[in-house]
TrEMBL record:
InterPro entries: Bact_response_regulator, CheY-like_superfamily, Sig_transdc_resp-reg_receiver. Pfam families: Response_reg. PANTHER family: RESPONSE REGULATORY DOMAIN-CONTAINING PROTEIN, STRESS RESPONSE REGULATOR PROTEIN 1. SMART domains: REC (SM00448). SUPFAM superfamilies: CheY-like. The modification 4-aspartylphosphate is found at residue 54. PROSITE patterns: RESPONSE_REGULATORY (PS50110). This is Response regulator. It comes from the Bacteria. Keywords: Phosphoprotein. Residues 4-120 form the Response regulatory domain. Gene3D superfamilies: 3.40.50.2300.
Amino acid sequence: MSRSVLIVDDDPFIRKLIATTLEDVAGFELVEAADGVEAVDYATAHPPAIVFLDVNMPRLDGIGAAAQLRALPGTEATTIVMLTAAGAERERAARDAGADLFLTKPFSPLDLLRLVDEIGGSA
């Protein structure tokens, strides 16, 4: 597994916020995808250490993408962090699909850094 972080959100501003916040953290390579289809395509060839995955996206939403990511060879140890403003029902569905952690939108860069620091040692 690579030391990459896959940032998946249909909002380019959110992707940029996460990438800018993490650009100097722990030697991770940062990769962006605009939807779940792009995320699964990338992870098939390059299983990432961490995936930040928006719940609501076109083509393939975050819950569907999480399930597909969990089914890929080499992603067993990938930490999937759902980016969500959704309620408890969607969080349950995401957890059932394989999500490990949740980061509620809107989030601060400090929250993001803390989360990556917590999981960085195991990624």
